[in-house]
Design goal:
It comes from Cardamine amara subsp. amara. This is Cysteine-rich receptor-like protein kinase 39. The chain is built from 15 helices and 26 strands. It is elongated and about 85 Å long.
Length: 663
Amino acid sequence: MRKCPTLLIFYASSLLVLQTLNVVNAATCVGSFYNGSSSYGVNRKNLFSTLASNVITNGGFYNASLGKSPNKVHALALCIRGYKPKACISCVEKVTQQIQADCPNRMESFKWDNDDGDNVSCLVRSSNHSTFKNLTLGPAILFPSALTIEPSKNMTIFKQEWDATVNRTLEAATKAENSSVLKYYSAVNAEFTEFPNVYMLMQCTPDITSRDCMRCLGDCVSYFNKQYWGRQGGESSRPSCVFRWDLYAFHGAFDNITRVPAPPRPKAQAQAPNGSSIRDKKGRSISYGGIIAIIVVPSFINILVFIFLIKFYARRRKLNNATNAPLFVGSAEYSDSDGQFMLRFDLGMILMATNDFSSENILGQGGFGTVYKGTLVNGQEIAVKRLTRGSGQGDLEFKNEVSLLTRLQHRNLVKLLGFCCEGDEEILVYEFVPNSSLDHFIFDEDKRSLLTWEVRYKIIEGIARGLVYLHEDSQLKIIHRDLKASNILLDAEMNPKVADFGTARLFNTDETRAETRRIAGTRGYMAPEYLNHGQISAKSDVYSFGVMLLEMISGERNNSFVGEGIAAFAWKRWVERKPEIIIDHFLIDKSRNEITKLIQIGLLCVQEHAAKRPTMSSVIVWLGSETTTIPLPKAPAFTRSLSQSDDGTSTSGSDVFTELTCR
């Protein structure tokens, strides 16, 4: 029973010093001093007064500057993901006041605040130079727990499990695949074999790169290990990131975190022959009474703590439910029938980002609305699609696109950041893709010369990979239905991104074909069985891909071939064994055999009978192989119904598979 007092002291002290880490600590002041009579201090005070409100309206992260050099002040504020607006405002206000008190005449300062009582973590940082998008590693700040872990036979196991938890948390924090403004974040509750659960949190400012975030957090972990390994928790922070761990849930970040199991438990030690005790590795005897006490006493204390926490969180939830929190930029909410999280943007912020939908910011215009370039106050560039007011077809497209793109993530699909639905405004917010759409290049005599064969090949392959994801690899099975050059966006490296999912159709995973009475898409790119009979399948997209591939090779629009279309024209040249006639004159001296192979693939994709067309996964195989035998194509459909809609406009359908509620 000699172990019992030690364990009682350990658990009791752990409960009594939950706030050990969070003693009031001063802000970190660096950089040169400024004259107290200069306007730098006034500018900082005025800028600080706006941080708390603006960090809420910007989704948890805000960056701004005020004044003119040399008294120009740059500042940013950040709240932990999942914050409550009131707690975030309180945290930022408290930190700004503390910085002004602790650093009255210093140009640079920062402070990560982790007050467990507020259930929120926040950062405020100021400088006389821009820190936005710049990794800053110094100075490094450490706040270790006052308690140490008692040395035991299992410290080796603890270290192994602790390192594994660090790696797991670091990997999750730096993935940055989600669309949240607060993208670099992870909180883990890990079950350990011989110790209480370990709670670990990592967060970086979202303006730096994923690689910089990994470096910053890695340095924080290494610094803590070097200086304070053996403590029962601690925090290591730098201006661009923070790392914290402890043996208790230090704030609300862990309310809904799923426990992560530890590695398998080591094999139990052998029982002593007399049955009254067991022996450890060093042969020391431990009585069964002592073992029972070791298990029962801390378990009883944990039960009491657990009951207290249940009552506390039940009361807090009741209070939260009674309060209607304001809607803010980037707030995640359930808005569709499948319970998918969608980011709702505030209309005021979109108006500010686009300069009230200024005509100077127009990127393009389509059948459903206008696309504007915008810049959020944190510097992030966005593309804003404002749907035409009062358009019933636009309503359907809006709901369809939001519902789909919240479920799809692929490097060759455009990323939907969120939406806005206020009054009669319906707005979609996308990542900004700087090189506009493919049709601005391929059908422009001057810009087309920029599309070398290598670039065109990369674009064709990227589109194909995006379609394979939609048809086969995503959790959903999606038929795009409106694939054409104007719906392919090009990023800064000319990588393609399939866009405009307003008329897309969801299929069950085991469904291969369906029929619809409402045709959606663009004439000239529609497969004949779909245009004439409403039969839709993945092969409908394959047909559209084939038309677009032939356009990429020829540099000509489908409707430029009067009376027949590009598929029929290419087929005739193929039969005549003169495929080079359709090759763009900018490519005529390039890889003739490779280009001819792609003409063959294009003709296979536009064959009249859907069953004869290849799957997009087959197309990927053919594109990447020089030895695979490619079948010979059959004749495409010669009949066309281009009429007035072959100029690139779309015909809308209403195969909307889910409902989005806008309030």
